Amino acid sequence: MPELLTVASLSSLDRTAFVGKVGAVFEHSPWVMERAWEKRPFATRAAFYAQLAEVLREAGRELQLALINAHPELAGKAAIRGELTADSAREQAGAGLNACTPEEFGWIQRLNTAYREKFGWPFIIAVKGLSRSEIIAEMARRTERSADEEFSEALAQIIRIASFRLDDLIAAD
Length: 173
Known about the structure:
This protein has helices at residues 7-12, 15-22, 31-37, 45-59, 61-69, 77-80, 86-94, 102-119, 132-143, 147-167. It is mainly alpha-helical. The protein has two domains: 7-67, no CATH class; 73-166, UraD-like. The protein is globular, with a radius of gyration of 17 Å.
């Protein structure tokens, strides 16, 4: 496992190196880290994560929606075709989504379709620590919510996913 970055070393990197080290944390969206770089230095890991949330809040709805749409569906077509990012593939496999029973796979596909038809973007959840049955139950529950609630929830889940990914890259304070 590579040596973890410190917040201080991360804060001292130039923009290109910074984005090179942590830019992939947000799915196909290095712009988040490009903007976060401008908020350096970061005092702590928690302060860095708070700045990331601030970058997303400041981004505006169009960029936020693009970020949401950059995420793959759970056990979706990209997973079947082997087109997930390494992080997404590892996370989905960790939740057992690559080992669904035919019944579970069918439920997930139907819920993915219902969710996308209702909201216009993919269902997003930080799967780390969740079982397949918990994920399916959450998909069903959240499909019943309003678009505004789900838009906010999707962004919160993206921050959670990024935090988990960054925890693997940045040393604790």
